[in-house]
């Protein structure tokens, strides 16, 4: 009997812990016999030597898939060893099942294939990544692989494969799988209905038996009616024999149902993933990490705001210094213009830059003579204007206004 379990991202670690018998595996199944765990083995260790979680991350990064938490990352087929397989064929049964599943789902998608001999019933966990190629592109798409048609054909196809290899048909199909692969809930519902029906039939036969016994207690054993009483007794015995046969049949049915319930309980335990407490603990850790990240970001934002405020203050201070420098430069320009040294300064600048911040002594001397002559002319002109003003306006104050004609001409002074 086989059953497919779909595993989402958050359930992968729980299944890996159970399959590889890592620490905490007893939480997923209380029936594990640790004294027999050494008998377990992985049939896929040669084709996939990586750790399952590492291989899963690598393989999924190679295929196209949706970025959602509810995507099926892995499928786990659990195939239980049928009771009618001889002891000498146990390993061969699992190897053939592994070959069948590997061919079916592609070797490069196989995660692991653990055979468990340390539980009540030996079985294999064949885990694979549900990848399908569509138009030449590999996609993670479980619903296109585990279709209803696929699940209905799985047991007959596996049975035919095993029959051809073993020479006989193991009891792969049973009441639980004859109509396709059904869930544990559906199997439990069917078991409950069958069990209730068998108990109802047993109760009916018990009532009929009790009625016959009550009737036999009223039989008159006087010799006068002995023949009639004998016939009645014989008829009762026949009915009782029939009831005993029916009771035996129903007892066999009850034993069969009890055995099926036991098997389903074992498989239900195998299908458990991590306990709820462990999942809640992981979620609490995630929430705690998120709060820590938010607190860290708030601190970083506060630090950046303080840095920005400092930069803003430095900028304002530099802006004030820049305004002061501009004002000083303007005063220097006005002073040079007032002395009539504009052209001489430009000539000096051209020579100084052309000679890479050096100047010849003879050039400097020539500039000095020109500057001296220019200053003398300006002072002479100023002196004449002041003398003229004092003669015309002896009792008024003298103010000088500097007016600019353009950037390439001398600046004139007006009184």
Automatic annotation (TrEMBL):
Keywords: Coiled coil
Pfam families (UniProt xref): Mob_Pre
Residue ranges the record marks as coiled coil: 280-335
CDD domains listed in its UniProt record: MobM_relaxase
The protein's name: Plasmid recombination protein
Keyword set includes Coiled coil: yes
Organism: Allocoprobacillus halotolerans
InterPro entries: Mob_Pre
Annotated family: Belongs to the plasmid mobilization pre family.
